Amino acid sequence: MCKAVEELAKGWAEESRLDTLYKNIRSVIKNTKCTVDQAMETLEVSDEDRVVLLKRF
User: How far apart are alpha carbons 40 and 26 in whole angstroms?
Assistant: First the structure.
């Protein structure tokens, strides 16, 4: 049971991290009038995160 809770917490933490990163990217876009790619470059988003986050835009 403890392992299941631990895995659930890891999944929630990852989703929370990606949500925060998504909001930060949107904020950069709004405030600088740049593209999604430029905002991700500015925030130094990893290639793995880019793949996931681009699906949200």
Answer: 10
